[in-house]
Each structure stands twice: as C-alpha cells, then as structure tokens.
C-alpha cells in the first residue's frame, strides 16, 4: 500500500479496505472502481486515499471470494465501465467486518481513555 | 461449501484469463481517463503509476501467476532444447535408454512380484504342507490327513486338495496328452472363480465328470456351448463335461510341469501314507497367520499322535501363496532392478556432465538475468525445470523403447520359474503402475543430474571459481561412473565365469543328437503290466527300425527333466538304510545315452519279469555303499519303490525286493547341471513296468527332423497314443540353465551399457578439459613441451579419476557381489581373476576414451592457441 509517503493524505488502516469497499457498494449500489475510490475519498473528507494499486487487486480478490460480482455497464458520461455489485455473501461479510471493526475500535478506545 | 465455490471461481478465472485480462486493461483505461478529467493527464498518469505492474498485482490476486511463470519457463526451456539439438538428442537418448531399461525391468517386477494373483482376495490364500520330521521339508499330504485338517480347523473358511495329472485325450482329432488337475469339490469356489459356461463340481457328481479349460474348449470343441453335457474320452474313458473354466484361468499359479486344461474330481485315496496331494486354504476374514499357524500346528500334532505309524511328520507349514509363487523370482527381480538402476545412475552422471559443459556456455545468459534482478533461487528453479523437462522427454523415449523391448523380454523369460508362468498368465505390460514408476524414476533422475550443475552454474562468482572447481566435480562424476560400471561389470563377469564353468561340466551322457518324448499309457486300455511292457517293446522295436535312428531306449525318467523319483534302499549286513534315485529302463538305455559301463554288464533280453531281480547302480551309489568292495554281486533291497499312479489314486508296490547288482555305470548330472551326482539305481522295465515312460532316440542327423516320423511310429503301435514333450535333449539341457542365462543376459546387457556410458562420459569430460586448457597447452608447447608430455598431462588427470573410481568400485563390488551368490557356480563372489579382468577392461576403455582428446591436445598449434588469447 501507499508508496507515496509525501502525501498529506492518510493511508487506509490495514485490513479495513475490504470493509470500506463493501460499505461503499452497500451505500451506492453497483459502482465502478473509480467511483468507489472517489466515494471513499469524499466521505472521508479527502483523508482516506485509495490507491489504485490496492483497490484493484482487492477487488479481484473480492471477486474470487464471491463478495462482489462485476458487470460491464454504462457510466454517467456514457463510457463503458466495469460495475461491481455486492452479493449476499458480500453483505454478510460486511456485517462481520463491521462487528469486528467496532470491537477493535471499542477496545482501542478503552485503552486510550484517560486514566 | 464456501471454499468449494471459491475454488470453482478460481478455476473459472483460470480458463477465462484472457478475457479477464482484457477487462482489466479496459478498466484501467477508464480509471485513468476519469482521473485525467479531474487532474490532468500527466498528473493522473503519475498518480496511477506503473499500469503493467498494477495489472500484474491484480492477476496475482487470481492465484494463477505461478502457472504463467511456469508456462513461460517451460517455453523458454523448450526453446533452448530446440536451439541445441545435439545436446538434447544425446541427453534424451542416454537417459531414454536407461529409463527404458528401468521400465522394462520394473514391468517384470510388476508382473512377477507385485501384481496380485488372479484369484479373489489372494492375500487370504495359503498352501498347507506336511512337514517331514527328519528333513524339515514341506511335503505333500494324504487325503485322510487333509480331511482331518479340514474338519478340525476353524481359521480356514474353506480348504481344498488337488494334484496335477495328465490324460490321453482321444476322439475328434489327433490324440493329445493334456495336463489335468484333480481336486476336491470347492476348489474353484475357494479361488473365487466362476465357470464361463456350465457349472463346477457338486459333492454328488460322479468321478467321470470334467471341466474344460477355456483353451482346450476352444481348440477341441471350437468354442461350442453345446459341449456342455457331451463327453470327452480321457485315457479311453468317457467323462461328462459339466462346465468350462473362464479364459485366463490357470491353476496352480506356479506350475513348472504343465498347465492343466482338464479338471476332474479327486477320487479320495484313503491310504494315509499316499502323500500325493497339495492343500490350499482360504483364511477366514479377521483370522491372522499367527493364529492359523498355531491352530494348524496343534492339529498336526494331534493327527500325528493318533496315527503314529502312518505319519511322516509332525508339523503343518503354511505358505501365503502370493509369496510362495514369487519366492524363487523375487530376489532375481531385485538383482535385475538394482543392476538397471546402476545404469540409470551412470546415465545421470553423464547428463550431469553434459549440463555442466552447457552451464559454462550459459554463464553469460545467467549473468545477465542476475543483473536484471533474477534471484539465484529463481534461476536454479529455471534450470531444474529444464532438467525435469529433459527427464520427461527421456521418460517418453524410454517408454517407447520399452514397448519395443517388452515382447523380446517376455520371450526369453525362463521356463520353470515364476518369470515364465506369471508373465504368461499375467502378461508383462507397461500398465499404470509401470508408467507411474517410470515417471517417478525420471523425475528423481532429473533432480539427480540437474541439481549439481544448477548449483554450480549459478554459484556466485562462478567465473572466478570455475577452473579447478568444475574440473574436480567432473572428475568426481567420472569416478562415480567408473565405480558403478565396475560393480556391474564385476557382477556380469562373475556370472559369465560361472556360466563358462557350468557349460564345461561333463553331463555324464552325450546330449547332442538325442530326441526325447514322453508316453503315458491310459490305465483303461493297458490295465496290466504285460500289456504295458508289450506296448513299449512294440514301440521301441518300430522306432529302432526307423531310418535315421541309431539306437532307442525307454526310461522312467531322463536326466535334467526334473521328474525325479527316489526311494528307500537297504544294503549289507548289518543293514544300512539309504535313499537313491530309481529308474526303470529298457536294455539299450546306456548305449543310447552314451553313459559308460564301468563294471559288469548291461541289461539284456534275458532280464524279464520272470528272471531274477537285477539292478545296475551308478558309480556314486557303489562308492557310497561299498567304498572298499566290489559292487558286483551285492544285494540291494528296495521297498515299495514306485507309486503307481492310477485314476483311482496312487497305488504302492508292497513288500521288499532283493536285487542283485550286475553292473556299475558312470554318473550323470541328474537333477541339474550344477547339482552334484546322486546315488542312482536302474532296474529293467520288464521287472518294474511303468504306465508312463520317456523314450529317447540317438539319431544320425538333426533330431528335430525325425519328430513327425517318430510320432507316426508311436501311432503305429497305438493310433490313440499321444506323445508329449517331443523335443531334442538339448532343449532340456538349455532349460536347465535358462534362468541363469536370463539373468546373465540382462545383467550382461546392463553391464555393457554401463561400460559404453562410462566411456562416453570419460570422452566427454576429457575433451572438454582439453578444450578448456588449449591455451595452457599452447603455452607449454611454446615453452618446449613435447607431444608426449602433453598427452601425459591429459592422461594423468584422467588416470587419477579412473583410479579413484576403480578403488571405490572394488570396495563396493566386494560388498555387493555377495548378493549374487545364488547365481554363481564354483566362483567366489570376490573372485580375484574376475575383478582383475574387469579392472583391466575398464582401464582399457578409459585409455581408449582418452585417446581422441589426447591426440587433439597433441595437435594443438601453439601459435594458434596463443593468438586466441
């Protein structure tokens, strides 16, 4: 991930990329890779930078795992684009990832609480 | 479920890789375009980075990258092999021959040792033998004993007794002697064999019923299903055909005398001393061999105690039939496998040497690959892959060669061994087992010959280390080849030596121009001694008068036929009890065989059934029982000498008979060429009539030319009388050493290959060394070295390797040739002359292989060599 150390944007925390992609797709419906990246950047107020070098391999792995399926469709500007769509398995995975994430966040929160 | 779906999706990705790749590319393009709109083309491109690398990363996610890498490596390796056809051909040919040899020998091992016998669950089948108390020999069993065993045993689910037999088959075509098997009902069921047609015996079937072997049914009845219910004439009596055995059914699996084609119910002989049956049992599921051994041991003791006077032994021995059948051939098979494995090792050493030379030539290519980032492991992987491909190609070549060699191998399988019977019953095939073995062998070989060169070629700073280091490695490989070749040659040499000694053995008779046959008279037609004697007298007279026949005789058995009958004798006062081989012969037997008469007289027409009992003994007999006395006029008492085999079962001759020695004849090799003569006694056949005799003719010319005339002459004596084994005595003589010859042929062929490969190996290494040292040689010559010095320089180096290999070879051979003891005759496994001859041969070959490169070294032009600097 992130070869560009000079950027002011923050790297995506390890292990959360799947969750972010899944959540984006859950919210947006079918979407292409560029759209997913844009979505994550915008909602995170440009804090989270999704590198192409991470996004596309991750999408390929998710295809293999069966969390998403890909279809060619028409983009807003009338270009052929590859749209990713959440599958039921992907939805289940999202729930699982969120639960896990919340557990970790809560734990970190407890550790970081002022004594 | 989820994992399975994932695997499925992965496979889908594999097969649609091309499409997916295009998708990915378009997707990237789209992404880049969108980004360019946002921040300008150059910035987008910069942010996007290396598109090719990204696509690679994506493909890696599919999990098939290794396959792409492998495919490209394979393509590269194949391109290399094509670009270097001479190297490729030599390597594939060398390895292919060696692998083919391994496949051939392993197909033998598979057929003879590994493949299960063609019966149901053969692992549960056991032979049961009576163990003779004195000799601890496994012997046949009598019917009453068998019945007791069967009734008292619990570990065996079923048990059957059988005995090999033969009949004269008449009616519908030429009379024919057919091998038969008589057995107690239930044998086929015990073996798990169903008849192809009709049914097997039931307990209430009469004794005049028969099953036909498939081959006999096809031959005599044209495969007509209507044969069931008809009858066949066996020894002149009608037997009703109940069924036909399935094609490919053979029993017993190890039969060194005949292949039964007629099956008749056993007529029980209630004499407890008629030991003529073999017993087979099927263990109950769950019953182990130990339990079976214990139970049968107890039964054996119980029966022995009940009938103390009629038992010849105490124990019962169990043999798993699979092991029993292969027993005599397993060691031979292993020796052959070991020998051919050595050939493969030598071939591997040769190819390794070739690869080392190749590696030197490829160092540039490898250096470049390393320079652009390939790791050493990656290059080693590539080189090993090349070796594996070479190995696979050689395996294909080897299998093709083995296919060609297979029929020849099957044809020389020696009779009277499991090699012969099992190869004939099972066939030798390049089946899946053999192919799998070959694949594994070729892969192992690939790693053997590939690893060292791969490590050496990719060694860091190989350019600096190459000179001496690589030379030493090659030298070591040559030494290994010499060592292996020495072991093989020593083995072959010892066997050749043994064979020569064996062939020089005086048989005691003259086997050339002798024609032999067997004639068995049916009991129904020849019910008494007079009729039988009359037949043989008539047949012998007719044959004697035939043109081309010098002399003719009949004998109950002939030397080297291994149809030995021995009996107990008593001589002298106080009496000495002993054993001797018994023969009944016609008067002209010794003249016909050309066995010398040493003392006394031969039998003549005056020795009849009515005249006094006479006997001729051989020299061994006379020396053993009257070492200080003249044998002539002495009395030999014989007991129930010969078991008369009749369809009702064996009948024993009762009482003792005193016989007067009238002559002493020379010893013959009776059982086998390598077996020392035994005590023999001969009686006139008029005084001990036989239902079956061998007839032997001394011919003026080639005995085989008389075969038809002899058969017709026998038919003149009795038109329904078949002959068996009508063949020259030399055929028996050849059969006697057939197994030795078989092993010798194979080991000899392997040793010759080893020698050739070693020579090629030395030649290759020395030539390479000379090429490498051209400049050095040039300098030396410029400085005044003469041709002789240069040649010595080349030879000296080889001499070191060859000597090292030879020393290792002698040491290993001393240990290994002991395994050959069973194949040696009057030669010690560490026979010094053989070892010396082998060493000389190898040294000679080494020098010969050195000559061409040494000559080219001498011819080096110093100017030319230095100019190349």
Put simply, the count of helices of chain B is: 25
Would you state the CATH class of chain A?
A: Mainly Alpha
Q: What is the strand arrangement across the widest sheet of chain A?
A: 1-3-2
Helix/sheet category of chain A: alpha+beta
CATH level 3 topology of chain A: Arc Repressor Mutant, subunit A
How would you describe this protein?
The complex is a heterodimer of chains A (115) and B (869). Chain A has 115 residues and is of the alpha+beta class. Helix content of chain A is 54%, strand content 14%. Chain A has a single domain, classed as Winged helix-like DNA-binding domain superfamily/Winged helix DNA-binding domain (Arc Repressor Mutant, subunit A). The longest helix of chain A has 25 residues, at 88-112. By secondary structure, chain B is of the alpha+beta class. Chain B has 25 helices and 24 strands. Chain B has a six-stranded mixed beta barrel. In chain B, helix 21 packs parallel to helix 24. The radius of gyration of chain B is 37 Å and the shape is globular. The chains are: A alpha+beta (115), B alpha+beta (869). Chain A binds chain B through residues 3, 32-34, 52-53, 56-58, 60-61, 63-66, 70, 72, 75, 79-82, 89, and chain B through 2, 5-6, 9-10, 13, 23-24, 26-28, 30-31, 33-35, 47-49, 53-54, 57-63.
How are the SSEs placed, and which strands pair?
The complex is a heterodimer of chains A (115) and B (869).
Chain A: H1 17-28, E1 31-32, H2 33-43, H3 52-65, E2 68-74, E3 80-86, H4 88-112
Helix pairs in contact in A: 1-2, 1-4
Chain B: H1 2-15, H2 17-39, H3 41-48, H4 51-62, H5 65-83, H6 85-114, E1 125-132, E2 138-139, H7 143-152, E3 156-170, E4 176-183, H8 187-191, E5 197-198, E6 209-212, H9 214-221, E7 231-234, E8 237-244, E9 262-265, E10 278-283, H10 289-306, E11 313-320, H11 321-371, H12 376-411, H13 418-426, H14 432-457, H15 462-503, E12 514-520, H16 529-544, E13 549-555, E14 566-571, E15 576-585, H17 589-593, E16 597-600, E17 614-618, H18 619-625, E18 635-638, E19 643-646, E20 649-652, E21 657-665, E22 680-684, E23 692-699, H19 707-717, E24 724-728, H20 729-736, H21 738-772, H22 774-782, H23 787-816, H24 832-858, H25 862-867
Parallel strand pairs in B: 4-9, 6-8, 15-22, 17-21
Antiparallel strand pairs in B: 1-2, 1-10, 1-11, 3-4, 3-7, 3-10, 5-8, 6-9, 7-8, 12-23, 12-24, 13-23, 14-15, 14-18, 16-21, 17-22, 18-21, 19-20
């Amino acid at each position: 991930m992130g070869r560009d150390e000079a950027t002011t944007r923050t790297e995506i925390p390890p292990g959360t990329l799947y969750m972010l992609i899944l959540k984006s797709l859950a919210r947006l419906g079918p979407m292409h890779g560029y759209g997913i990246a844009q979505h994550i950047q915008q909602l995170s107020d440009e804090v989270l930078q999704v590198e192409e070098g991470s996004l596309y391999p991750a999408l390929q792995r998710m295809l293999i795992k069966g969390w998403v399926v890909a279809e060619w469709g028409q983009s807003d500007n009338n270009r052929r684009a590859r749209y990713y769509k959440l599958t039921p398995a992907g939805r289940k995975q999202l729930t699982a990832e969120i639960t896990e994430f919340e557990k970790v966040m809560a734990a970190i929160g407890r550790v970081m609480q002022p004594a | 479920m989820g994992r399975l779906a994932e695997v499925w999706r992965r496979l889908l990705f594999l097969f649609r890789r091309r499409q997916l790749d295009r998708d990915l590319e378009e997707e990237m393009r789209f992404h880049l375009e969108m980004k360019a709109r946002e921040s300008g083309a150059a910035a987008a491109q910069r942010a996007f980075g290396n598109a090719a690398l990204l696509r690679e990363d994506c493909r890696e996610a599919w999990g098939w990258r290794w396959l792409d890498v492998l495919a490209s490596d394979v393509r590269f390796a194949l391109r290399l092999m094509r670009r270097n056809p001479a190297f490729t051909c030599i390597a594939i040919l060398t390895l292919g021959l060696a692998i083919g040899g391994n496949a051939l020998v392993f197909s033998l091992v598979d057929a003879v040792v590994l493949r299960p016998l063609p019966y149901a669950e053969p692992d549960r089948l056991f032979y049961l033998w009576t163990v003779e108390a004195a000799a601890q020999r496994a012997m046949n069993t009598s019917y009453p004993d068998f019945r007791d065993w069967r009734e008292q045993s619990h570990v065996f689910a079923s048990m059957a007794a059988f005995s090999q037999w033969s009949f004269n088959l008449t009616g519908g075509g030429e009379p024919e002697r057919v091998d038969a098997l008589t057995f107690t009902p239930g044998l086929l069921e015990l073996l798990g064999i169903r008849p192809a047609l009709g049914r097997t015996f039931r307990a209430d079937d009469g004794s005049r019923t028969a099953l036909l072997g498939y081959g006999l049914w096809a031959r005599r009845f044209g495969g007509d299903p209507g044969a069931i219910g008809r009858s066949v004439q066996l020894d002149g009596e009608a037997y009703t055909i109940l069924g036909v055995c399935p094609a490919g059914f053979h029993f017993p699996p190890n039969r060194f005398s005949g292949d039964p084609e007629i099956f008749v119910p056993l007529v029980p002989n209630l004499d407890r001393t008629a030991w003529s049956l073999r017993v087979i049992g099927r263990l109950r599921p769950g019953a182990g061999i130990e339990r079976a051994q214990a139970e049968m041991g107890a039964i054996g003791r119980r029966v022995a105690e009940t009938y103390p006077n009629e038992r010849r032994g105490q124990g019962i021995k169990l043999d798993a039939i699979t092991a029993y059948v292969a027993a005599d051939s397993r060691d031979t098979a292993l020796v052959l496998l070991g020998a051919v494995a050595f050939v493969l090792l030598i071939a591997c050493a040769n190819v390794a040497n070739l690869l080392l030379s190749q590696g030197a030539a490829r160092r540039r290519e490898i250096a470049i690959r390393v320079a652009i980032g390939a790791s050493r492991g990656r290059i080693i992987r590539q080189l090993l892959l090349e070796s594996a491909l070479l190995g696979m190609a050689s395996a294909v070549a080897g299998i093709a060669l083995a296919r060609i060699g297979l029929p020849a191998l099957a044809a020389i399988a020696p009779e009277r061994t499991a090699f012969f019977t099992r190869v004939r019953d099972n066939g030798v095939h390049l089946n899946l087992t053999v192919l799998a073995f070959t694949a594994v062998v070729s892969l192992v070989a690939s790693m053997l010959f590939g690893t060292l060169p791969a490590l050496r070629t990719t060694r860091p700073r190989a350019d600096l280390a190459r000179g001496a280091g690589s030379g030493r490695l090659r030298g070591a490989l040559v030494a290994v080849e010499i060592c292996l070749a020495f072991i093989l040659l020593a083995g072959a040499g010892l066997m050749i030596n043994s064979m020569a000694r064996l062939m020089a053995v005086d048989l005691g008779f003259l086997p050339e121009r002798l024609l032999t046959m067997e004639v068995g008279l049916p009991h129904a037609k020849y019910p008494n001694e007079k009729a039988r004697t009359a037949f043989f007298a008539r047949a012998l007279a007719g044959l004697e008068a035939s043109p081309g026949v010098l002399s003719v005789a009949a004998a109950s058995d002939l030397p080297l036929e291994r149809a030995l009958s021995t009996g107990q004798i008593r001589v002298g006062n106080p009496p000495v009890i002993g054993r001797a081989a018994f023969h009944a012969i016609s008067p002209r037997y010794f003249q016909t065989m050309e066995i010398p008469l040493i003392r006394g007289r031969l039998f003549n027409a005056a020795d009849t059934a009515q005249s006094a009992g006479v006997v001729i003994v051989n020299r061994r007999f006379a020396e053993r029982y009257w070492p200080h006395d003249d044998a002539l006029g002495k009395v030999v008492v014989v007991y129930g000498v010969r078991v008369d085999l009749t369809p009702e079962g064996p009948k024993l001759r009762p009482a003792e008979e005193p016989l007067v020695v009238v002559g002493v004849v020379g010893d013959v090799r009776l059982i086998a060429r390598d077996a020392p003569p035994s005590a023999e006694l001969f009686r006139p056949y008029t005084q001990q009539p036989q239902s079956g005799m061998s007839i032997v003719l001394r011919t003026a010319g080639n005995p085989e030319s008389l075969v038809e005339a002899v058969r017709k002459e026998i038919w003149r004596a009795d038109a329904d009388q078949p002959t068996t084994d009508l063949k020259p005595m030399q055929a028996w003589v050849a059969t006697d050493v057939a197994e030795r010859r078989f092993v010798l042929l194979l080991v000899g062929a392997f040793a010759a290959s080893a020698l050739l490969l070693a020579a090629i190996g030395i030649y290759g290494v020395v030539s390479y060394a000379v090429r490498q040292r051209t400049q050095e040689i040039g300098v030396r010559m410029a400085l005044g070295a003469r041709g002789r010095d240069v040649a010595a320089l080349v030879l000296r180096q080889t001499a070191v390797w060859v000597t090292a290999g030879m020393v290792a070879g002698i040491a290993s051979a001393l240990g290994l040739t002991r395994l050959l003891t069973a194949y040696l005759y009057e030669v010690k496994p560490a026979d010094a002359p053989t070892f010396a001859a082998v060493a000389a041969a190898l040294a000679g070959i080494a020098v010969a292989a050195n000559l061409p490169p040494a000559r080219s070294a001498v011819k080096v032009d110093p100017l030319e060599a230095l100019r190349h600097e």
